[in-house]
Design goal:
Number of helices: 37
Structural class: mainly alpha
Shape: elongated
Function: Involved in pre-mRNA splicing and cell cycle progression. Required for the spliceosome assembly and initiation of the DNA replication.
Oligomer: single chain
Organism: Micromonas pusilla
Distance between the termini: 102 Å
Protein name: Pre-mRNA-splicing factor Syf1-like N-terminal HAT-repeats domain-containing protein
Keywords: mRNA processing, mRNA splicing, Nucleus, Repeat, Spliceosome
Helix content: 55-70%
Subcellular location: Nucleus
Strand content: under 5%
Number of strands: 2
Radius of gyration: 54 Å
């Protein structure tokens, strides 16, 4: 045995003998494009043209009976072998049967069809092709036998019935056709089957039989389609009375069906065609009154077109309202708590003028109570009750029902959780309009007892003031302050009431009690009202004392500025003089005011202008000193005070020295940076802010001059560039 790398005799082979050499790749020297370019389309076309034709078996010519028998035996063997392998394939059976049919051997063809049906009798195509073979060769009885077996085995296949009936009718066998239809109708086919039966009887003008078929048809399929077809048949014969009777029977039978709206429309259109518009209008109105709103859309659409053609303006408007009513019904049915839809719905009914329908919609709307006892859910809902009450009062003009609406609304509101002052107030105002003052007082008293609110007290007090019951007003103010002693607005209005009655001491006592409270909701309003009251009374000493008391409580810069402005301002003149000034010319009024101020200064030295200026300046000095000592970090407040002081000096004409003195106290504004941190303390960079350096702080900032020099050098350098 030769070893690896040896010849057949054991000789060594040279290594070059086993080496495989590959041709050297040709290098393309000229890479320029060829003058004639070949496209991909051209390559595909040439390949298609050069493609060889597929192989076709040669045609065989049979010359004698022996060759024919041999050919038939060969083909039958091929088909039988194929059937044994794929008996479930229908196409093989069909090809086999059709081949036997081409050989005019119908007995064998029938045998093949029968064998195929034994394997799969549910195949519709096998039955159809089997019957078509019998009919095409005019084997009527055989075809009739095939169809009869097909409809017995597969009675739900409508095509078998149609083909069977068509064959019998083409042969003129009307009795057989009718018998087949009767057999078919026992299986209760769909609309098309019944319609085919009707058409068959119609072709032979058997009207009595047609009506009998329609009677059975509408019993089998009680639908709008069946009844309308029957009515159209009667109308085609010109029998209006019978057609109307059919529609009437249909309405009675289909009254509770889903698609009855289409029947009403067809009935009305029939009456319209026979020139009976009043009957058609009555049908439309009956349909709209009895149909659910969501199913009446098509009826409304048809009714609108009808009224545009036959009706007047009022009828057209009624139809439009009806369409809108259907729309709102769908919205409120989809979301019963959609109060905006209820608002639109009730407003439409009010504008339409039908009181009973509007009342019905309001009752349905208020029945949808919010699911939770939270005021935010009730805010929109409560306006349904308010609109309902206003409708009963203004439109229906029924005060008893209005009173009942307010009563039921107040019963429904959960007053322990929240209440609505508007409802209480409107109910009381309604009773006042009805001249039932005791009922109005009772409603407001119940409101105060169940859920007292400031608006209710204000309404009650205004009512008693208009009636001149001062003692009742005082009692109500006392009750309001007893329930809520921290309400500054109630204190101020109580004092203003006493002031309007010229009860100065009572008003002052009320203010004193109010400012003595430890806790107030808006103390600044109360103090301002107290100071304005004393100012109007001309009590400078009392006003000054009030400012001093207020400064003991707060050192706010606005209080100091107001105090200084008060010291500068002359006391208020008599109210009668003020009224006269409003009616005089500006020059005359100014002269009159100056004369009055001179008279006041002569009577009281404190009212002289120089004294008032010095007092105001003293307040500014005290304020600046207080802010420095008590609030050293409130630099912006000090700047605000100094600016007000400078404006004061410029306004009173104190001279340039005074203004310059204030200017020396003004700080310089500088821009600085400070670090900022996130919520968890992580550094987040820096931010710029403005700080104020006051003159007395210059020594505490030794590096400020260096910083100023650096800024000055930078500005000069920027200017030179």
């Amino acid at each position: 045995m030769a070893g690896v790398g040896e010849g057949p005799l054991g000789t060594k082979l040279h290594s070059s003998a086993t080496k495989v050499s590959y041709p050297r790749p040709t290098r393309v020297k000229n890479k320029a494009p060829a003058p004639t370019q070949i496209t991909a389309e051209q390559i595909v076309r040439e390949a298609k043209e050069r493609q060889e034709e597929t192989f076709r078996a040669p045609k065989q010519k049979i010359t004698d009976a022996e060759e024919l028998a041999e050919y038939r035996l060969k083909k039958r063997k091929e088909f039988e072998d194929l059937i044994r392998r794929v008996y479930w394939n229908e196409s093989v059976w069909v090809k086999y049967a059709k081949w036997e049919e081409t050989q005019k051997d119908f007995a064998r063809a029938r045998s093949v069809w029968e064998r195929a049906l034994d394997y799969n009798y549910r195949s519709q195509s096998l039955w159809l092709k089997y019957a078509e073979m019998e009919m095409s060769h005019k084997f009527v009885n055989h075809a009739r036998n095939v169809w009869d077996r097909a409809v017995n085995l597969l009675p739900r296949v409508d095509q078998f019935w149609y083909k069977y009936i068509h064959m019998e009718e083409m042969m003129g066998q009307v009795a057989n056709t009718r018998a087949i239809f009767e057999r078919w109708m026992q299986w209760e086919p769909d609309h098309n089957g019944w319609n085919a039966y009707v058409k068959m009887e119609t072709r032979y003008k058997e009207w009595a039989r047609v009506r009998h078929v329609y009677e059975r048809y509408v019993q089998c399929h009680p639908s709008v389609k069946a009844w309308v077809r029957w009515a159209k048949f009667e109308m085609s014969l010109g029998d209006v009375a019978r057609c109307r009777a059919v529609y009437e029977d249909a309405v009675e039978t289909m009254e509770r069906e889903v698609d009855v709206d289409q029947l009403y429309v067809k009935f009305a259109q029939f009456e319209e065609r026979v020139k009976e518009p009043e009957r058609a209008r009555a049908i439309y109105k009956y349909a709209l009154d009895n149909l659910p709103k969501e199913k009446a859309r098509e009826a409304y659409k048809a009714f609108t077109a009808f009224e545009k053609q036959y009706g007047d303006r009022g009828a057209i408007e009624d139809v439009i309202v009806g369409k809108q009513r259907v729309k709102y019904e769908e919205e409120v049915r989809a979301n019963p708590t959609s109060y905006d839809s209820w608002f639109d719905y009730t407003r439409m009914e009010e504008q339409h003028g039908d009181v009973e329908k509007a009342r019905e919609v309001y009752e349905r709307a208020i029945a949808n109570v919010p699911p939770q006892n939270e005021k935010r859910y009730w805010k929109r809902y409560i306006f349904l009750w308010i609109n309902y009450a206003l409708f009963e009062e203004m439109d229906a003009q029924d005060p008893e029902r209005t009173r009942e609406v307010y009563r039921e609304c107040l019963k429904l509101i959960p007053h322990k959780s929240f209440s609505f002052s508007k409802v209480w107030i409107m109910a009381s105002q309604f009773e006042i309009r009805q001249k039932r003052l005791d009922a109005a007082r009772k409603i407001l008293g119940m409101a105060i007892g169940m859920h007292p609110k400031e608006k209710i007290f204000k309404t009650y007090i205004d009512m008693e003031m208009q009636l001149g019951n001062i003692d009742r007003c005082r009692t109500l103010y006392e009750k309001a302050l007893e329930l809520n002693p921290f309400n500054c607005s109630s204190w101020v209005k109580f004092a203003e009431l006493e002031k309007s009655l010229a009860e100065t001491e009572r008003a002052r006592a009320i203010f004193e009690i109010a400012v003595g409270m430890d806790q107030l909701d808006q103390p600044e309003i109360l103090w301002k009202a107290f100071i304005d009251f004393e100012t109007e009374e001309g009590e400078r000493g009392r006003c000054r004392a009030l400012y001093e008391r207020l400064l003991e409580r707060t050192q706010h810069v606005k209080v100091w500025i107001s105090f200084a402005q008060f010291e500068l301002r002359a006391m208020a003149l008599n109210n009668d003089d003020d009224d006269d000034d409003e009616t005089q010319e500006p020059e005359a009024a100014a002269a009159r005011r100056a004369a009055a101020e001179e008279a006041a200064a002569a009577a009281d030295p404190e009212e002289a202008e120089p004294r008032r200026v010095e007092s105001a300046r003293g307040v500014y000095e005290r304020a600046l000193r207080s802010l420095k000592e008590n609030q050293p970090d409130a630099k912006e407040e000090r700047v605000m005070l100094l600016e007000a002081w400078r404006a004061f000096e410029e306004g009173v004409g104190g001279g340039d020295d005074r203004v310059a003195e204030v200017e020396k106290k003004m700080p310089r504004r500088v821009k600085r940076k400070r670090p900022i941190y996130t919520e968890d303390g992580t550094p987040a960079g820096q931010e710029e802010y403005y700080d104020y350096i006051f003159p007395e702080e210059q020594g505490a900032a030794p590096n400020l001059k260096i910083l100023e020099a650096a800024y000055k050098w930078k500005r000069q350098k920027t200017g030179d560039e």
